[in-house]
Design brief:
Blueprint (H helix, E strand, L loop, with lengths): L3 H6 L1 H7 L18 H27 L5 H31 L20 H7 L13 H10 L12 E3 L5 E3 L9 E7 L4 H17 L4 E7 L4 H11 L5 E2 L8 H5 L7 E5 L5 E4 L3 H11 L2
Helix pairs in contact: 2-3, 3-4, 5-6, 7-10
Length: about 290
């Protein structure tokens, strides 16, 4: 249920789009053969269920009791959230597939919707031959795809050269391709979501640091004192590097990083095998590859 909040945030946009009629013209003015009314109705139903679930989440969040009943309710909410997330994403991809030659899909793909998709899905969505490719709602999806072109699974890593916290020049190649799995973690001291995720990264490091695993932190900080203080405060005991250029960091262009936290997991030969692992997904992926 890691992205259910993104979906809920799109509710107004989606429900507004679903009220725009039953048939949508293509770029050349012809009406599409598929019944868009069914998709409008189904999308409205799914988003309505998501909004109801969000209300339940808020109720549970306000419940400070520690009881088996509350735990069971949280488990149920998580399971339903995962199911609704899958339904929502599947429906979006079905709309893209069935209405590829029209502008109809664009109304569902604006804002944060693009963050729901992986590299291969974004490639399908951003098909330059589609009827909606030039619609303004595709701006975010195109930007995310351009970034992922530099760091999707299967690519070989690209080296970075920066300084560590002591001012010593270091490279990713000092750690990558040396026979270990390496998580390159892009973060910054000023990034709230980064700091929220960091206890999970610390936990993973403690669990696997003696099992053929390393982490290299690449900071998007611009102030050295803030960077080094955060490293010590959080307890990040793995190697760190930064060029202290903020969003102008070399890592932004080399790896297409346009939001943080972000990461790439490299195999012992330096090939990217996973990206943007967070929470339980990070733990499960490491458990799968590190024996």
């Amino acid at each position: 249920m890691k992205r259910i909040v993104i979906i809920a945030g799109l509710a107004v946009q989606i429900l507004t789009a679903c009220g725009q009629g039953t048939n949508t013209p293509t770029a050349d003015g012809e009406v599409v053969a598929h019944d868009t009314a069914w998709y409008n109705n189904r999308m409205g139903q799914v988003v309505g269920e998501i909004n109801n679930l969000m209300k339940e989440i808020q109720v549970v969040a306000n419940d400070t009791t520690n009881s088996p009943e509350r735990d069971a309710r949280i488990t149920s909410i998580n399971q339903r959230g995962d199911s609704l997330e899958a339904q929502y994403k599947s429906l979006l991809l079905e709309i893209v597939h069935n209405f590829k030659d029209s502008k109809y899909p664009a109304q569902f793909l604006g804002g944060d919707a693009a963050y729901l998709f992986d590299y291969d899905e974004l490639k399908e969505i951003c098909d330059s031959k589609s009827g909606y490719y030039n619609e303004p709602q595709l701006k975010t999806a195109k930007r995310l795809l351009a970034g992922l072109e530099n760091r999707h699974p299967g690519l070989q890593y690209k080296d970075l050269s920066m300084n560590d916290m002591n001012g010593k020049a270091v490279k990713l190649s000092d750690y990558v391709g040396k026979g270990k799995y390496v998580l390159v973690d892009f973060w910054a001291s000023w990034c709230g979501p980064c700091r929220q995720e960091m206890p999970n990264v610390v936990s993973a490091y403690e669990k696997y640091k003696n099992k053929n695993f390393e982490i290299v932190g690449v900071s998007f900080d611009s102030d050295k004192a803030s960077w080094t203080a955060a490293v010590k405060q959080i307890g990040m005991t793995w190697p760190q590097m930064s060029d202290l250029k903020g969003w102008h960091s070399a890592a932004a262009s080399v790896y297409g990083i346009n939001s943080i936290p972000a990461n790439i997991l490299l195999d012992p030969q330096g090939k990217i095998i996973a990206i943007d692992l967070r929470g339980e997904q990070l733990q499960s992926e490491l458990a799968k590859v590190i024996k």
